[in-house]
Amino acid sequence: MRTTAVRLALTVCSALAATTAMAVPAEATVFHQEISVRSDAHITPDGRITLSGTYSCEAASPVGAVQIRATVIQDSVRVTMGAGDTVCDGHQHPWRAQSKPGRTWGVQGGAARAVAQLQEIHFGGGMLPRSVDTVAEDARDITVHDRRR
pLDDT tens digit string along 4-47? Predict the structure, then answer.
């Protein structure tokens, strides 16, 4: 039950982070964190966009959680997706984010931009997030490989 509630809270937080810039006190963030995104993305035969890379982070504050948010930008199209659970133990880990099937929203093979963000979510009293802080980011030009053909 708790895992489901945490996943729901992370989903809500991702939606809030996509639409709102929130301020967080400096003392509330984790330190020694990194994220990188690979220089290519893939569109699978079923229409999923996949981005990947590596990250490392230390434990989030006791009232927080860490998530990865990845975005592919091509022309005026933005596809944002989460990368699942994170392990914040100070070691480097791989991550992979994938959109839902058929959710490319017009992204095609060719040049694009990718942004990967390591975000710390701070909870107040309850399951709704109080704020989201981007603690590490990597943005780069990438190549999208379309495997739908």
Answer: 444 444 454 444 444 333 333 333 444 678 999 999 999 999 99
> Which helix (DSSP H) or strand (DSSP E) does residue 15 occupy?
helix 2-19
Q: How many domains is the chain built from? A: 1
Question: Could you tell me the residue range of the domain that residue 43 belongs to?
Answer: 2-146
CA distance 90 to 144: 30
Give the DSSP letter of residue 63: T
Q: Is 55 exposed, middle or buried (0-12, 13-18, 19+ CB in 10 A)?
A: buried
Which is it for strands 64-74 and 49-56: parallel, antiparallel or unpaired? Answer: unpaired
Residue 60 buriedness (CB in 10 A; 0-12 / 13-18 / 19+): buried
Reading the block at residue 107, the tokens are: 């992204």
Decide which of 70 and 31 is more confident.
70
